[in-house]
What does this fold into?
Amino acid sequence: MREARALREQRRVTEALTSLERLREDHPRFSRLHQERAQCLIALGEGPAAIAALREAVALNPALPACWDMLEQLHRLRGEAGEASVAAQHLAVLKQLPPAVVATQSLLADGDLEPAEDVLRDHLRTAGESVGALRLLARIRLEGGAADEAEALLAAILERAPDYREARFDYAMALLQAQKHQAARQQAERLLEDAPDARHVLKLYGAACLGLGDFEPVIDLYARLLAGPCESAEEVADLRLWRANALKAMGRGVEAVADYRAALSARPDHGVAWFSLANLKTHRFDDNDIARMRAAEARPDLQDMDRVYLRFALGKALEDQADYAASWGFYARGNALRRTSSRYRTDAAERCAERLKQAMTTEAFVKRAGWGADSSAPIFVLGLPRSGSTLIEQILASHSQVEGTHELTEIGRYVGELCGIDPDCGLPVNPAALLDLKAAQARALGERFLSETRAYRRLGRPFFIDKMPNNFWHIGLIQLILPRATIIDVRREPMACCFSNFKQLFGTTNQEFTYSLEDIAGYYRIYLDLMRHWEAVLPGRVLKVQYEDVVDDLEGAARRMLDHIGLPFEPACLRFHETRRGIRTPSSEQVRQPIGREGLEQWKRYAPWLATLRTALADVLTETA
It folds into this structure.
């Protein structure tokens, strides 16, 4: 930017624009870059292009007084009084605010969080607190990933100013980011009472419903938003994508494909839409699709996450064509790029596991026997991702007494509150803190889990499933607060499980150990070690279910699990693929089909590239053979 500005001030405007174009390739959403482009274009007398650049700048960052000022002047010169008036109104609003607040808003919009907070805190020290400035501080904390801090700050603001709609919207967003979906939906409902057509609030409401697993309402909600005035092709693409995700979760695959395709019509390089089609597992791409994805993936200006999504989609497309070498190349490059933004470290996870084993001893559990809430309702299905847990959940949820929910986040959140979270692996820093709980606190936390998960239980069945795989880390807490809960550990052959994790792209903040074969092997070893520990200190507490055994003898496996829960066998469990319920894991379409053996040895097609994994798992493979 400094180079471009210096070139413009030297009247070397063409060179300045060339410099800005190079910068734009890496930072397309940097608003002040577009402001500088506009100033260069004005110097060249290119009014329409300058207006376009200014509009791009204020779309990214509305807190740019100079841009609104230039827009007003350019529109007046062109005789466009209406557009000039709108720009003047925006400029007038900004001029009424303290300069520090405007500067903070501008820095925040460009993602410059630390300088934004520095400017704002200086302002708060000199001018005193105001709800507007405190809301800005909360937004900075929210953007920085500190959802709990933002939530507390916004709750305090709303105590002082309950009618502050913008703060209430931010509060709902903080709740959503903290995965408190029921509370977020309640806040959205309150906002919609006064403004039932507010599009941004309707989108927030839809996201909260999706988080609760309440998919049906949002299908029509997104259709309603699509029928209204969309601001851009980007908005159309997003709405189509979100609607398709809800349709997929409800088993309406044909309609989901149509909406994913519509998203791609609106935005052809929409990486997540291409990936979502691939993630159906049952969809097949044709040669034209593959050519389009290859072309998009090769674009130098493509955003990193779009490129990651496209690489995984191409991996699946070429796998379906039996071009395993090319498929492996895309899976490997997709993981490599995704890993560049991950903080996960195996050594950090190993240290967390050691601290956990040291704290969670036989003596600790004997001393706390009988603690916790007296309920047998929860069924925890856990293990590694891609181990077959969705299949187990679907089998059990086909029983008349069991309700499937999805991968609930409450247990992990409680551990974070009590123990802190290691930023390099997302695991508890101080698991010994669990032992500081008193009996009454453990019971209260168990009751809190039962209360907070009630929103996901709409069928009113006596038992319900929490299918969060990562809960294998938290069996100790589960034992302390819910000692009568059922725990089922789902295992899968190591090579098959590890490779399946490598070729599956998870959510942007989930399962970060999956981006390299070495990390996956290390994590698998930690998992086995921890499960051995839990069996040693809580013998017989966890039922181990081998995925391959379920494939070989479905009825025998179903009876064994139901016996462990204390339920009678029901034939519907064998017809699990006929059960209609919302499922949003990658296996959602697969478990709507009869059980098959095709997934048992898929990894062998990639054996030439898995020597590193096989070596890293050598003794594990012998142990589990």
